[in-house]
């Protein structure tokens, strides 16, 4: 009884080196011999004489079917074997392309690579844009692609969109102090607009911890708005908050775009201006999967003042001014939350009376219009 071959033995015989070398030599010789050559003068004379003999009937029939044709068939057979050997990696390549057509350059089959290119991230914003973003594909947002059809599709995610400028000394204020002011401003923006607890309606504790308690009037107003919101004290003027009983965020991504600048402050320190837009995709809390987006642009002016010259708290920011522009939220509702509107349901608020605006247009200053206006947005 023969032994069972071991598992580590090859399943197919290997080609010996000497056989492979002989095969290579034969192939090269055949290629050289089969290459077209310019016939010599003697060869042309012989060919002409044979043609004349054939015309006179002096050659036997079938003289052209001799060994020369057999040799040609032999070379053809070797070429077929060569193609079979080369055909193995070719077949593998074809199979790979069939499984993943994107391996071919240029996406010839239209597999969607162009969509990925269109969604490539934008470079950071270092200056005010000169115009609004161009038109996007007219796609409806979905749970899987909540930013489809929005310019924000190419914006950075969350904190990644808040890129601090390089800190430099401003007059007597050192670069380290400038860097501290920039980082505190970012902490305020994150806590007020990106913190998941804040967005879901909780108290924005992280953002409030950055503000100087030596501004008691400001903090009292913010606390009043968070406890008992109303028209005069509405926390959404500084914080992005949604009613968890009404809507819930789609996924964990909030798109962010903007810039931060700094200059010498009026309180012996460094003044920072932050201008950022945040895009929030949400669905109704009661189950339907229709996705809508609310767009919030905020402009803040803060200062890290000099504690040796002014009565301020070291390491805290003075909030000097803040403004906002909100796209796709019900007008004249002062309950402390943003209220996105869905295209499938009619708005319960008043009819639009103000101008139509593009909430993605960051090339203009925030419009200081009449508080009684309720405008429309051109896109969400």
Automatic annotation (TrEMBL):
Region (Disordered): 24-69, 110-151, 343-380
Keyword Transmembrane helix among record annotations: yes
Protein name: LigA protein
Record field: transmembrane: 82-99
Comp. bias regions, Low complexity: 117-136, 343-356
Organism of this sequence: Streptomyces variegatus
Biased composition (Basic and acidic residues): 39-57
Entry keyword set: Membrane, Transmembrane, Transmembrane helix
